[in-house]
Amino acid sequence: MYTIIDGKKISQEIKDELREKVAAMKEQGMERTLAVIQVGAAPASSVYVRNKKKACEYVGIRSLSYELPEETTEEELLGIIGELNGREDVNGILVQLPLPSHINEERVLLAIAPKKDVDGFHPVSVGNLSIGRPGYVSCTPAGVIQLLKRSGISIEGKECVVLGRSNIVGKPMAMLLLRENGTVTVCHSRTKNLKEITKRADILVAAVGRPKMVDETYVKDGAVVIDVGIHRNADNKLCGDVDFDSVAPKTSYITPVPGGVGPMTIAMLMANCVEGIPG
Ligand code: GUN
């Protein structure tokens, strides 16, 4: 028998905890403010941004919305970020990705002050994570750690395999599992004997970006499987990187798509905004 990890429920618990914290902070005269910047109107980005603003409202964080036209220049965007960096009343700055192709994403992420980098994408935040210093942590991998901890799954000493090496998920995921004393292997598209490695995993995190690539032949009996992927199949249904139906019966715990890792990203963004840089 396997247990489905309910990301919707766990993310709701986290948002409720944060809502209480924010209410207590307000009583002491403290307010949190997140600036959300979107350039252009890509439908997927608009959905994410709307959900982030809704979560802010629920938790009690003030959100400032910058909905900029597609033609916005890099200089204009950098100007807005510079102004927000200097504003004492703004704690967090989030630039929704991807940006239009005429804007250099790296320069934009570098422009966000690390103390306001609630997405955890700035090289200073990434570097702090990798050497164990306090800093903001990328929200999706931080959410995976919370799913494991709040499901009573210990990471210490476990064989953890991360499938995928993106800057936003794979690499920080590996660093976080290492910080929790897991034994971590990172696999990717060029890895030889991939299944031999993934079959060693006590905890397998799939963040490879290929629909249903991980089937039961990749998974050890009793493993914990976390699916970070999100795709739409030909019937417009959501699916992950894991072929849930074939994999689930082999696992002890598994996350579904939707309703697994997805809702955790915004919950952890809210946590970053409320709690600031973790000590
Ligand atoms: N685009 C897709 N996911 C994310 C995210 O977590 N943060 C930002 N800023 N943009 C994204």
Brief digest:
This protein has 279 residues and is an alpha/beta fold. It contains 10 helices and 11 strands.
Task: List its traits.
alpha/beta; 3-stranded parallel β-sheet; 17% strand; binds guanine; 40% helix; 279 residues
Q: Mind explaining what this structure looks like?
A:
It is globular, with a radius of gyration of 19 Å. Helices cover about 40% and strands about 15% of the residues. The protein has about 280 residues and is of the alpha/beta class. The protein is built from ten helices and eleven strands. Strand 5, helix 7 and strand 6 form a beta-alpha-beta unit. The strands form three sheets. The protein has a six-stranded parallel beta sheet. It has a three-stranded parallel beta sheet with strand order 3-2-4, sandwiched between helices. The mean pLDDT is about 95. Bound molecules: guanine. Guanine binds next to strand 4. The site of guanine has 7 residues, from strand 4.
